[in-house]
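Researcher: I've been going back and forth with a colleague about how CBS domain-containing protein might be arranged in three dimensions. Neither of us has a model we trust, so I'd like an independent prediction. The organism is Marinobacter orientalis, in case that matters for your notes. Sequence below.
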Amino acid sequence: MQVKEVMTKQPEYLNDDVTIREVANAMRDNGTGFEPLTDGTKVTGVITDRDIAVRAVAEGKSPDDKASSVATGKVLYTFEDESIDDVIQNMANEQVQRLLVLNNAEDKDLVGIVTLGDIADHCKDDELAKKVVSAARHYH
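Model: Here is an independent structure prediction for CBS domain-containing protein. You can compare it with whatever you and your colleague have in mind.
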């Protein structure tokens, strides 16, 4: 199975000049806890609901501060033709639950997001389910 078979397609994303409040509103409206930030042509960072709690609220940031000030700049991704087994191992190694999905190494267009939940929803065998559970154990 490949990433493109389980990923969320056409993800929402925000310009990297938005405020923390705008990201929180987008998360509420979209029912997500993760938003990629872009400069219009490329992903410059990602922000999670945890980033808002730990890096913004806990550090006394204003909701009107730029979201990029609390976003994770190290953008983790995979490609849509990557195998699910490789993606699960990558998530476990990086201790994350989700990765951006790019179309290919040449264009690097954002085409989706894949989460451990997406993969779990498509588990058809016990071995894959065990890998998902193992990867989830590594997440903090």
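Researcher: What would you highlight for our discussion?
Model: I'd start with this: The chain has one domain: 3-137. After that, consider the following. The first helix runs from residue 20 to 30.
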